[in-house]
Each structure stands twice: as C-alpha cells, then as structure tokens.
Design a protein that fits this description.
With 443 residues, this protein is an all-alpha fold. The chain has 24 helices and four strands. β3 and β4 form a beta hairpin.
C-alpha cells in the first residue's frame, strides 16, 4: 500500500480536514432531523395510532423461537413512536432538542398509553378522558436521528409498513456488500461476512427500528469501502462520518459494528492483504480513534445544544448515565462486580452441566489454533484482523453494565468478532500445517 505523504507531512492539515468532515456530517444530519420534525403531524398521528394496536397485540418484549437472544424490543420502538407523534407539539428545533415522549408509572401499559395519546390528539372519544394521566418526559441526551427516516415513513404507513421497508433496504444492502466483497476480497471473506451476519440473527434486525439503525450504517460504510480501493487517510475520514452518524441515530444498541465491520472489510480487500502485517495495525488504531472522535463530539454537541435550547441540565444527565453504563450497578439484585459476573457465569453453566464441557472445548480450540498456525510471519500478517476482532469484546467490557442488562440485543455486536475472527484464523492457520505438526510428533 502506498504511503499517504500528504498526511505524513501535514498532520495538522489532516486534523483540520477530519474536523471539517465531522462538522459537515453533523450539519447535514441536523438539517435532515429538523426537516423530519417539521413534517405535518396529523398523518403521523394516524399511523402511530394504527401502530399502537400492533404493539399491544405483539407485547413489549415478544420472544421468537423460545430463545432469549431472539427477543424483540417493542418497548423502545414504542418510545420512538411516541417521540414521532409528539414532534408536532413544539417547533421543529425545540422538538428535536427535547425529544418528548409520554409514560405512566406502569411501563407495561405503554402500548395502550400510545393508543390513548394518539386518540386524544386526533379528537377520538376513546382517548379524551384517560390520556390525562400521561406524563411527558424528555429523552434529550440522544439525538434520535432515526426520526430522519421513521417520521417520513410514518406519514405514509404504520409500523408494519416501516418494518417491510427496513427489511427491503437492509437485505438489499447486505446483498450488495456480499457481491462487492466477492469481487474485491474473494469468495471466502464474503462467506465469512455472511456467516457473521447469520450468527447474530440478522434476519430479525429489521423488525425493530432500533436494531436496524446500526446495521444500516455499518453496511453503508462497508459499501463505501468496497466501491473502490481506499487509502488509510480516506478510511479515517469515512470513520469520522460513521462515528458521527452512529451517535446521531443510535440508542446505544450495537454501535461498535459501524466501526468494526467497515475496518475488517477494508483489511480483507486485496490491496491491504497484499501488504498486510503489523504496520496495518496503525490504520486500525488510527481509524478507531477517528471513529471515536466523531462519536464523542457528536454526542457532546447534543448535550451542549440541548442544554442551551431546553434549559435542562442535559450535560449532567448524560454524564450520570455514562457512569451508570460503565461502572457498578445491579442486575436482578446482583452487584455487577467482575467477581459476581464470573461467579454468575460459572453457576449458570454449571447448573446445566456445561461448565467443564465448555472449558474442555475452549482448551481444544486453543490447542487446535496454536497447532495449525502456518508460521510466525502468517500470524503477524493476520494481526490487524485479530486486533479488529477484539473491538466488540472490549466495547462490551467497557460498557459492562449496559451490555449485561441488555444482553439480548447487545450480543449482536459480536458480528465484528465472528467476521474478523474467521478472517484472522483463515489467514494465520491452515489444516495442512496442523497435520504436518501432528505427523512429526507421531513419528
């Protein structure tokens, strides 16, 4: 890979370019959000009203196939629908900054509350009396950028139609990624990518607005990477945009995939594979920092702007919530210290007779990996992919409280680990190498 001399000679200029890219991305997203908030309220209310019956029929946390990791989150999608419906109560700027939703003390009635709210706003007799119990609350620490597409779609269709659109869009993007990966990276990386998406049940992702968001952004990043050969400096600028879009649109569901998947795809492209090695870790680290800068600056800008517009202490609330998600808290009465977490994992596996089988399986996998390493050079060439595979576990550990409390959807972050991990193993290991070592030991 050719070195980017402009970046080497002018790091200050490159930093200014990255900040300009961030500012442009944020300005465009902000303008789109204001436009979505300015749409007529009545058609949105009518379709949200229809959607409330779907939510009530399904329940707030429907679980498919009797499997906890296939659990949906209609609760959060209902909050999103509340926000979309309430936007017309205020000016577009105030509505975007405040992000008002409604609730009562019993969260289990949220679907019914949504029905009553819409009925009251539409002047239907069913909601005029009971809706007075609803209390507004501000969800201002997030940008809620998903309203950029959710509110226009709700002008035309209820939530069932929104889901259909999300399925069409997401799987069209996934198909495009796989086709381009086969062309730019080869068949095996494309298969690894497909396996990683199936492993995290991508077929359920478009069913929820909040699940859909980060996967859509991640696939868009992968398509940009695959459109033509990209230099490391170009990747860094793209990751600033991806980090900004993620913070703007996501509710802390699986944000790390918008970094990990595009980076892993970039490493699998033929130009990077030809010159792969430890030096390729630098673009991975640098790109991660650029993504993090875009992510952090975008969130911080909302806290500052929302504080100025609403007069609420959004900065204090956001800092408090960040502490809750990254430090000690409780889950089902258990304090989330590392000792308690490991003890819980042991007790859970041991109660099903799985602890020692899992230990034996882990040891066998580790032994097979070291046995099949082709060479030291092959391991070093694959190192950037190994580093990328660690992104999701590190993210889940740093946000351990949030990761455990919402494990039934945060687990999909491991799509990065599966994809980059398979590519890392394939590049560094070979069955022939393992067979030769075994054959030598038996002679």
């Amino acid at each position: 890979m050719k070195k980017d001399r402009t970046t080497q000679k002018n790091p200050f200029r490159q930093a200014l370019r990255l900040l300009a890219v961030f500012a442009a991305a944020l300005a465009i997203l902000f303008a789109l959000l204001l436009a979505a908030c300015a749409l007529p309220g009545e058609p949105v209310l009518r379709n949200v009203y229809k959607s409330s019956f779907t939510i009530q029929q399904e329940g707030l946390y429907p679980e498919y196939c009797g499997f906890k990791l296939f659990q949906m989150d209609n609760y959060t999608d209902t909050v999103m629908l509340f926000e979309a419906a309430a936007m017309s109560e205020q000016t577009p700027l105030k509505a975007a900054m405040t992000a008002t939703a409604y609730n009562v003390e019993n969260f289990e009635t949220l679907g019914k509350d949504l029905e009553l709210y819409c009925a009251s706003r539409l002047g239907l007799s069913a909601g005029t009396e009971q809706s007075v119990a609803l209390e507004p609350f501000s969800y201002a620490r997030y940008w809620h950028g998903y309203l950029i597409w959710l509110r226009p779609l709700l002008c035309l269709m209820p939530i069932t139609g929104v889901r259909v659109v999300q399925y069409i869009v997401l799987f069209a993007m996934l198909a495009a990624v796989l086709v381009l990966m086969k062309k730019r990276c080869g068949l095996r990386p494309a298969v690894f990518f497909a396996v990683s998406q199936l492993a995290v049940a991508v077929f359920f992702v478009p069913h929820q607005v909040q699940f859909f968001t980060t996967f859509c952004i991640a696939y868009a990043g992968c398509l940009w990477v695959l459109a033509k050969p990209r230099k490391a400096s170009e990747l860094s600028m793209a990751l600033v945009v991806l980090g900004t879009c993620t913070a703007f649109c996501d509710l802390l569901v699986t944000p790390i995939i918008t970094l990990g998947l595009p980076v892993a795809v970039w490493l699998c492209c033929l130009p990077q594979r030809i010159c792969s090695g430890p030096r390729q870790c630098l673009p991975v680290i640098g790109g991660s920092l650029c993504w993090g800068v875009g992510y952090a600056l975008c969130w911080a800008s909302k806290w500052v702007l929302a504080t100025l517009v609403t007069g609420q202490d959004i900065i204090g609330d956001a800092i408090h919530q960040a502490g809750v998600r990254t430090t000690g808290a409780s889950w089902r009465g258990m304090e989330l210290t590392w000792g308690n977490i490991f003890r819980f994992i042991y007790d859970t596996l041991n109660s099903h007779g799985l602890f020692w089988p899992c230990v034996v399986l882990a040891l066998l996998c580790a032994a097979a990996f070291f046995l099949c390493i082709r060479s030291k050079d092959a391991l070093l060439r694959a190192l950037p992919l190994g580093l990328t595979a660690l992104m999701a576990p590190v993210w889940l550990v740093v946000l351990r409280t949030h990761s455990i409390q919402h494990g039934w959807f945060t687990w999909r972050s491991l799509a990065v680990t599966v994809f980059a991990g398979l590519a890392f193993i394939y590049d560094s290991c070979g069955l022939k190498a393992g067979w030769r070592r075994l054959h030598k030991k038996t002679e």
